[in-house]
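In practice, a research group might receive sequence data for several interacting partners and want a quick structural hypothesis before committing to experiments. The following worked case mirrors that situation: the sequences arrive first, and a predicted assembly follows.
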Amino acid sequence: MGTTLVSWLGRTDLRAVAESHQVGLGPVAQALQTGRFDRLELLCDYGQDEVACYLAWIHDQFEAPVTPHHITLDSPTDFGAIYRHARQVVADTVESQQEGDNLAFHLSPGTPAMAAVWIILAKTRFPAELIESSIPGGVRTASIPFDIAADFLPDLLNHPDRELERLTAGLPPAAPEFSAIIHQSPAMQRAIARARRAAPRSIPVLIEGESGTGKELLARAIHQASPRRNRSFVTVNCGAIAPDLVESELFGHEKGAFTGAAARRAGYFEAAHTGTLFLDEIGELPKPAQVKLLRALQEGEVIRVGATSATSVDVRILAATNRTLVEEVAGGRFREDLFYRLAVAVIRLPPLREREGDTGLLLDRLLDQVNCESETEPGYTPKKLSVGARRLLIEHPWPGNVREMQNTLRRAAVWTPGPVVDTEDARDALLPRPRSKEGIEQDPILGQDIVQGVDLKAIIDRVERHYLERAIEVTAGNKSRAATLLGLGNATTLTNWLKKHGVQT
Ligand SMILES: Nc1ncnc2c1ncn2[C@@H]1O[C@H](COP(=O)(O)OP(=O)(O)OP(=O)(O)O)[C@@H](O)[C@H]1O
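A structural hypothesis for the assembly, expressed as tokens:
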């Protein structure tokens, strides 16, 4: 019997070769030093030379055999690629193990996305011990206080059809709650199949997708298909609440808790008791409120602002974001522990441009809906699209997704007097694109008043510095990967940019 440790090679491990006086042994060698692991499978996303140096260094110190796996990731936060490589290495390892052998995954080296994948694998297909290490804490088993179900992993795999078959197998034939979601593309079928599987269970669901892709519509369908369907469905737009009011809105407040708190008031959590709470724009939640939200989810209770005791709540959480939350975690803007708590089931709604075959279907069905909505209006004639109008609308890129399409058709129906929306009517309905103009006006970079004069150099400096810092942060200081992320030719070019802006690595 023996234990195999599987781990990514991290930046600190590589630094340990030359700078162990500063960084210690690094998490991988620290784990080997315990003598608990008989073999090491090492996933390496660094240059061959750096890795060879590290392997020689490790070989000099420890007897355990080390098998390197050279892997090229386009991005260290690419969840899908990380998942596929890690799963392959683990599957091969398990196959070569003897009966009774054990498996451990190391959470500490690498990016948060890599750690997340180890947790997912250990909690689902390949039960394994999860370890973590640090200089002050030594090597210890990480206790992960929640379960992640295999069915509800993020859409990590690139085998759509097999995945779709697996997801739809055993689903009830009809799911009327989801019928309002017009779709036929395989990408949407996959998303809906996941939602149908997740719906009956009280697990949290995180819905990711661009604005107007139907996240709220899907959240309502999940609630409708759940045992809580006859209870309340409470929607909160986390981005629309003033930061200093978030806690009292979510958790309620006592009379006199702050200026303006004239009466005791229950928050959204209590309003959703026994039902579903839909936290829209969850990525906008300020960090202090994230701490409180995590506590509420873990404890199943909330404390009103100004109260001394807690109130129990039984709430199913559905959350939505138009950001990629794991990247927000990697960038330090969203708490990792809260992410794991919310991301038990992750469903990504693709933008319209990735929904093959959906545009035409949506145009027809949404126009039918517009006709239905308007049929009682005096003098309204139901509309149809001319061939040219249909072609024009099918070719439109729909940056605002289904919402933009819906509004365009509503406008076309208002402005077209007769029964046929022709190409010109459709073009007119598309033309007023107030959202993009407003978007630019509100954009701190692009929306400055040129008439007042703008400091172009300062703006460009700010953008450069911002992205340099983020690239260094998500790659944990790996310059060649940071250069790739930024589209710069090589690490030397990046180094020059870093020097110019005084960005520390
Ligand atoms: N597949 C669909 N079939 C029918 N209607 C849809 C579909 N997707 C979205 N809609 C409609 O488009 C509009 C926008 O959808 P919804 O509000 O759910 O999007 P969202 O992703 O939550 O947007 P935001 O991120 O801006 O809040 C709604 O009126 C919704 O009913």
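Before designing any experiment, note the following. Residues 456-474 form the longest helix (19 residues). The chain has four domains: 3-143, 151-168+176-352, 357-432, 452-501.
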